[in-house]
Amino acid sequence: MRNSRLALALACLGLFGCAHSRSVIKRDDEAGFGSYRAIGVPAFVDPRGQGQKIADAVNRDLAALTYNPVDGKVIAKILAQHKPSKDFGYSLETLQLIRNQTSADAVIIGRMSPDWSAAFVMMFETNMGEQVLRGIIRPSGRKKVFKNADEVALAVVKAITQ
């Protein structure tokens, strides 16, 4: 009886103890994700060529949570014309241009690791040009890598909206 309780406790610990997220998200203390209603997500940088599928899935998942997706292709075009500086990242001018042309309150920019073990995400607010979020998002549980774009999108949206 005592051994069965121990086995049950270890099984529960194994099931629930490994189910936590290994993602790391750093937020600006002033930023509240809920204050951004229109959010743009250009294609993720991805060596496997799935970046647009990931962005589309993130937009779909954000729309399901009543956020307004913004055309990421317009944002990608602006970002291609205005490269970030090494010291300061994207300029206020670039983010204002995005805001004026798309009405986006914020932009989520992402990059996948080559083996899909992590997504690197940054979110910029377009009014004042502040970086309001950055993080490394990893698969939850015992998974070592993401399987597909939908799984990446779900993890990204879950991590940034919590």
Written description of the protein model:
By secondary structure, this protein is α/β, with parallel strands linked by helices. The protein has helices at residues 2-17, 51-64, 72-81, 92-102, 149-161; strands spanning 24-27, 38-40, 68-70, 106-112, 119-125, 131-137. The chain has a 6-stranded mixed beta sheet with strand order 1-6-5-4-2-3, with helices on both faces. Strand 5 and strand 6 form a beta hairpin. Helix 2 crosses helix 5. The longest helix has 16 residues, at 2-17. The chain starts with a helix and ends with a helix.
Summarize the model shown.
With 162 residues, this protein is of the alpha/beta class. Helix content is 40%, strand content 19%. The chain is globular and about 40 Å long.
